[in-house]
């Protein structure tokens, strides 16, 4: 099964990295869902919540204060002004 390689970084810290089945985010143009095989994309990230469905483990929610994200060759890179994993998850959860 195809998967996404996801990396989330904030201005001052690394938030999360790992393999995922899906990433959902709010952009300046509306909400978008990214699955493996998605076309290349560069978008402005709006304030709100990112949803990540890891290959292993339960769904993750990350609160972001804006930034941008890119998608290319099943690699999703999210650079946020500020980002925080919700539900008290450790900031290095899922890092390879």
TrEMBL record:
<comment type="function">
    <text>Produces ATP from ADP in the presence of a proton gradient across the membrane.</text>
</comment>
<comment type="similarity">
    <text>Belongs to the ATPase epsilon chain family.</text>
</comment>
<dbReference type="GO" id="GO:0005886">
    <property type="term" value="C:plasma membrane"/>
</dbReference>
<dbReference type="InterPro" id="IPR036771">
    <property type="entry name" value="ATPsynth_dsu/esu_N"/>
</dbReference>
<keyword id="KW-0066">ATP synthesis</keyword>
<dbReference type="InterPro" id="IPR001469">
    <property type="entry name" value="ATP_synth_F1_dsu/esu"/>
</dbReference>
<dbReference type="GO" id="GO:0005524">
    <property type="term" value="F:ATP binding"/>
</dbReference>
<dbReference type="GO" id="GO:0045259">
    <property type="term" value="C:proton-transporting ATP synthase complex"/>
</dbReference>
<keyword id="KW-0406">Ion transport</keyword>
<keyword id="KW-0813">Transport</keyword>
<dbReference type="InterPro" id="IPR020546">
    <property type="entry name" value="ATP_synth_F1_dsu/esu_N"/>
</dbReference>
<protein>
    <recommendedName>
        <fullName>ATP synthase epsilon chain</fullName>
    </recommendedName>
</protein>
<feature type="domain" description="ATP synthase F1 complex delta/epsilon subunit N-terminal">
    <location>
        <begin position="4"/>
        <end position="83"/>
    </location>
</feature>
<keyword id="KW-0139">CF(1)</keyword>
<comment type="subunit">
    <text>F-type ATPases have 2 components, CF(1) - the catalytic core - and CF(0) - the membrane proton channel. CF(1) has five subunits: alpha(3), beta(3), gamma(1), delta(1), epsilon(1). CF(0) has three main subunits: a, b and c.</text>
</comment>
<dbReference type="Pfam" id="PF02823">
    <property type="entry name" value="ATP-synt_DE_N"/>
</dbReference>
<keyword id="KW-0472">Membrane</keyword>
<dbReference type="GO" id="GO:0046933">
    <property type="term" value="F:proton-transporting ATP synthase activity, rotational mechanism"/>
</dbReference>
<keyword id="KW-0375">Hydrogen ion transport</keyword>
<keyword id="KW-1003">Cell membrane</keyword>
